[in-house]
Amino acid sequence: MRFRPRVVYSRGAGCAELAEILAGDQALKASGDLAEDCRNHRADLHVARKLTGFDLVSTAVPTNFEPDSVESVVATVAGGPHSVLAAEIAAILGERLAVPAKIISIHRTGDDLEAAKNAIAVTSEAVPQLETSVVEIDKIRRIGEVLEGESLLVFGAPGGSFLTRQIFGAGARLRSGSPGGKVLVRRAPPRVFQHMDSPVFVGALREASDALALHPEDVLAVADDSRLVGVVRRSDLASAPPGTTVESVMGEPIAASVDDAIDDLFENGSWVGENPLPVIDDQGNLVGSLVLDGMSSRSDRAS
Question: Which of the pair, 77 or 41, is modelled with greater confidence?
Answer without folding.
Answer: 41
